[in-house]
Amino acid sequence: MEYPLLYIHTPPPARQIDDESTSIYVRKEPVPSLIIHQLRYFARPTNKERQLYLQLKNGEHLIGTIVKVKGEEVLIRALEQEIWLAAESIAYITAK
Hints:
single chain; SH3 type barrels; five-stranded antiparallel beta sheet; 1 helix; 5 strands
């Protein structure tokens, strides 16, 4: 008896689903790797604090220093207050 060179298991035929699903799945857009790299770089300790200009995607901007990066969340100290910010909301970062 001769055996096939490649055996591919085919799935069973799809069954009919009576109820209609109205669920919508929104795929989370990944944070650009450049932003993540910049956040990690600017979060490193230095002799003096770096003043950064962060332009947000909604048109606002922040001037401050990065205190901590936790996953895709960033803690920024701006004008004597600390703000948690999602990394995906940052359009670009420049040094002030």
